[in-house]
Automatic annotation (TrEMBL):
Signal peptide location: 1-24
UniProt-recorded name of the protein: TolC family protein
Keyword rRNA-binding: no
SUPFAM superfamilies: Outer membrane efflux proteins (OEP)
Stretches of the chain forming a coiled coil according to its record: 259-286
Transmembrane segments: none
Family named by the database record: Belongs to the outer membrane factor (OMF) (TC 1.B.17) family.
InterPro entries tied to this protein: MdtP/NodT-like (IPR010131), OMP_efflux (IPR003423)
């Protein structure tokens, strides 16, 4: 057997390893699983996220805090008590005299009565503060859910790509080893061996970069799901999940409406404007002076012993009518209204941009012939036949080898881009548009 025929036989034997079937690729995914590996679907990831994410749990406490402020705003002003006694009677020389004839004591009780509905207006502001805390919580959930979903899909497709690299590198390592033996015997030229080693080094470098990306995704999921740092995740995604949703089933006007209803960051701006209006009402109420009721008991200091008296007091709003705070509240209302208008435009722009990007990705995905990989595998058989006939050399064969790898990686990236674009629409509208 000639050296060329020998090398062809080697490549033909290794070919099924380099270009496995789809089932073989799925089986290879099991190589990711370790004793600390958690297999989970996207729904399971959502469930764990909602139950264990520390940032979400901390934000939920913010709502509890604001409810406490509501309770505080509902409380009324405490009464004030004033007690006075004489420490020493110079005539009788008694110290702290409490007898009827030689002692003097005064007791006063005051109660502030807030007028103009100040208490109710403060309660309204506190309730809006709770609504703002709720807005922040749901906007945080929207942001972190988007990060969870995009990381989940990115990790899944990165692991798919890693399988391709693992298979090709394993094949090339065997091929390089055999070529090295044949080169040592003088059966193959140095340029062919160098070409194989260079391509193997390129694949190894690309694989290392992919491993860095996987490590970043794993780290993000560990934080999002509040798991041990030693945990690794194996996302489970079915073909039905990928093909179930399509941006073509969505209408842009409907997405605008959903964003108006479900974007809690936009609702936060509106609640802020609402709170500024409530603050103006409160500042106007503060211009109205409060009433003070007073009861007095004087033992011996009045014109008669055991004097009882009641009184009423009120500030005269002659100089300070709270004009500055009222004017500032009006300015803040105008500012908040402009912020609402500006952010509404921003939200609509986010929705439109996400929709257009998803359409473009969907169009590319739908035009891609999913039978391409099978056709490419059959093409490799033809390439091998031509290689046996010495119609192509090892360099041309490696070019087809590289093309197969690129097609697999690019297809996985295309699927990833499509799912990422659908998640971006969900992020832009604040809810899952396919469930509405």
């Amino acid at each position: 057997m000639s050296s060329l025929s020998y090398l062809v036989t080697i490549l033909v034997v290794l070919l099924p390893v380099a270009f496995p079937t789809a089932q073989a690729q799925n089986n290879n995914i099991s190589s990711f699983a370790t004793s600390d590996t958690i297999r989970l679907t996207l729904a399971q990831a959502d469930e764990q996220f909602n139950a264990h994410n520390l940032t979400v749990l901390a934000s939920q406490l913010g709502i509890t805090e604001n409810k406490a402020y509501e309770i505080q705003a509902q409380l009324r002003v405490n009464p004030a008590v004033y007690v006075e006694t004489m420490p020493y009677n110079q005539q009788t020389r008694d110290v702290l005299p409490f007898s009827q004839s030689s002692g003097q004591q005064v007791v006063q009780v005051q109660q502030l009565i807030r007028l103009a509905g100040k208490r109710n207006k403060q309660v309204a502001i506190a309730k809006t503060g709770t609504e703002l805390a709720t807005d922040r919580l749901y906007d945080l959930l929207r942001t972190l859910t988007y990060q969870l979903h995009t990381t989940f899909y990115d990790l899944y497709f990165a692991q798919q790509s890693l399988s391709v690299y693992n298979q090709e590198i394993a094949t090339l390592q065997q091929t390089v080893s055999l070529y090295q033996q044949q080169y040592d015997k003088g059966n193959v030229p140095l340029k062919d061996l160098t070409r194989l080693k260079a391509y193997l080094f390129s694949l190894t470098t690309e694989r290392r970069q992919l491993l860095h990306r996987i490590a970043d995704d794993q780290g993000d999921l560990i934080v999002l799901l509040n798991r041990s740092p030693s945990t690794s995740f194996l996302p489970i995604v079915t073909s039905e999940t990928i093909d179930t949703y399509s941006v073509n089933n969505l209408a842009l006007p409907t997405l605008y409406q959903l964003a108006e209803e479900h974007r809690f960051d936009l609702k936060g701006y509106r609640d802020q404007a609402k709170q500024e209006q409530q603050n103006l009402d409160l500042q106007k109420a503060l211009a109205v002076p409060d009433l003070t009721l007073q009861g007095t008991y004087d033992r011996n200091g009045s014109y008669i012993p055991n004097y009882f008296g009641v009184g009423i007091g009120i500030n005269l709003p002659l100089l300070n009518k709270n004009q500055g705070n009222i004017q500032a509240a009006r300015v803040r209302i105008q500012s908040s209204q402009q912020n609402v208008a500006a952010y509404t435009l921003q939200v609509d722009s986010d929705v439109q941009r996400a929709y257009i990007k998803a359409q473009q990705t969907e169009q590319l995905y739908r035009t891609f012939d999913q039978r391409f990989n099978d056709d490419f595998s059959r093409l490799i058989d033809g390439v091998t036949t031509n290689y046996k006939k010495q119609n192509i050399d090892v360099v041309e064969f490696l070019d087809f080898f590289d093309s197969y790898k690129s097609s697999q990686i690019q297809y996985a990236q295309l699927q990833n881009d499509r799912m990422q674009s659908l998640e971006e629409i969900r992020f832009a509208v604040g809810t899952n548009p396919f469930n509405n």
